[in-house]
Amino acid sequence: MGVILFLQKNKYKSIYILFFVFISFLVLSFILGSFLMNKRIFPFQSDGYIEKIFSSENLQLNEFWAEEIKNGGYILFFRHTQREKWNDIVTAYDAHELKNGIEARGSWFERAVCLTPRGIKDAKLIGIVLDHAEIKIDKIFSSPSCRSRETALFAFNRIDFYDPSILHPTAISNKEFPIMAKKLKNLMLNMKIKEGHNNIISGHSNTLDKYYELILDKKKLPPARHIMEISEGGFHVLQLDKQEGKIYYKHKFKDFRDFALQVYSLADIEPSDNFPLN
Length: 278
What we know:
The protein is α/β, with parallel strands linked by helices and 278 residues long. The protein has eleven helices and six strands.
């Protein structure tokens, strides 16, 4: 009773107190949640409830799609492998490179737009893993940017076609978005994919999510933020319906690791006193 009377007499003070208690609760909850997650303590422990909810479906889908693309008939839309992070100014370097027909590798600004040494190795690994998985590749399409070209060349040793519409939209004026989106959609719809094979697009992280509804069919289409969240070397799986003139979004391997884990089986390697293991 005394607490109620105090709150009634001190209306504004009570609001401040409640607000302070609420903010303190949020801050403490965040700190506690971060600690539990970092230490993998309940409910974030390995194989715990939260992990099962948020990861089991993706693991099953990754396994399914790693097998499915072996059958061919898809477009594998890759984000280029690692480059140095020069923030938004990279778009100006890209525009300078492409508009003036400069070979960026060996130029004074190569570190802004080309692959890092690690990116080169990661690209090589992509080709090795896809080859090990016996995934057949027909045509290789690439953005004209240095990092996308190098990703395709180090991974697959060739590029069959360059197209500026694959370039990341941040290097393009907003008024050109609909034009470039239409060009990219037409590029994909006009692709011929050899039976049992897939086509590769070596591009960027934000091309699909920026053009989004201008390119992809809305059937089972995930939010744009889902498409945007892809690491360097990750890839999207797209499927064409040429009769209907539609492009379906099927799956995302956020990290190339997610795909590679489905390809290599290490459990059947026998122990040995020699290395390399034979």
